[in-house]
Amino acid sequence: MKLQQNKTKRRRGVVLTPVGLQRLQEAIVSWEIVNNKGDRLTLEQLSRQINVSTKTLSRLWSLNASVDHKTLKLCFGAFNLEVYENDYTVLTEEHETELPELPSESSSIQTHNLDKLFTEAVEYRSSYPDGAVPLDSPFYIERPPIEELVYREVTQPGCVIRIRAPRQMGKSSLIVRLLAFADAQNYHTVNLKCNQVDDQCLTNLNKLLRCICWQIATQLNIEPNLDDNWDEEIGCKLSCSLYLQNYILKQCENPLLLVLSDVDRFFEYPHIANDFFALLRSWCEEARQNYNWQKLRLVVAYSTEQYVPLDINHSPFNIGLPIRLHEFTQKQVEDLARRYQLKWTPSKESAQLMSLVGGHPALIQLALYYLSFGTMTLAELTQEAIANGGIYRHHLQQHWLKLQANPHLVKVYTELVTNRSTTLNPMDTYKLESIGLIGFEGDRIVPRCELYRAYFAKQLSQVTLQN
Q1: Which of 87, 90, 78 lies closest to 46 in space, CA to CA?
Q2: Chain centroid to CA 463
């Protein structure tokens, strides 16, 4: 007589909440950025990474079919997460629903990876696009080979990376990812935003350098002790260099990534700009022969260098890895539209939108955000934008206020948008490019996009009539 084997039924009793799904997805996206060059994992790849079946993962993403608590901990633990009480709810077995096995990587899952599975999570955490694209966001568009280049370069001793692009082109979003990559390598990281430096610190170089050193030490959780490590007798530049070399870098066992954002703010302060940028250049040269300085990885981000009258031998803007962030291509716009769940015909709607705003990343993101809600069509969005600014009204008004603060720039930009032939001096070019109002067609300087041309032509004509 055969003995009948008793099969124990494994209980499945917990269901992932939207909060838990969001946390898990954020961790997966961060892992993909650091370990997979930002490429999304297929379901099969994710299954192998976590060591659970694809069927179990499909249950997890559904938010209505339960798994056991041990499996939940396994999924979270694979990405260094702890499971919290608000990450799941408990379901009784009578509420179980079976899900069919999803196709393997060799079939349709290979084409869309996890995009379909993450649709609910994307909708759950979709937020107004303003500022840098968050690290966990599915709406970050890579611009190969830029990300790979900066990740590789930052591992080189004493490296310099120069990121140049007008405002709202994606510098901050790229820096967020570079800092995350450095964190994953156990580097020390410091992110200094030069536009946050008080005006009083720009009155002389000594104040500025002490301010920067204080911020570096503070972000590294090191007691600044500036007075004990600063000798006015030898000058502020040498004091600053020795402070970093003998006080900061000596306490850093691992490399230090120092990011200086918006350094072009200093361009308008020539009494400090030349000395400050020459000092940065000297640090880069020290790294070639000094071990402590080799720990430093320097990133400078700026909008334009059209107005930088620096000695080429003392400038940090002609060394290191140069990175230029350009506008989105049509393919990238269509990729982003898919992530917003828009059903666009290839080369049709993307071309219509780009005829209005070009490939301007911030303006593209804003349009797709509104279109994804279905409350307006692309034609309606375009018509309203040309008529009175539409969804871009606040963005355009901010630029208008910046222009009005400089009557000379108003006159110069009037000539540009009315298609008059005009020659810009370096300072005007620097200011308009820094704001993001102009583009370049060969040697010609033109309004950045049709939206800007139409809006500012109307605004500037009203000013002319009033005068």
Answers
A1: 78
A2: 37
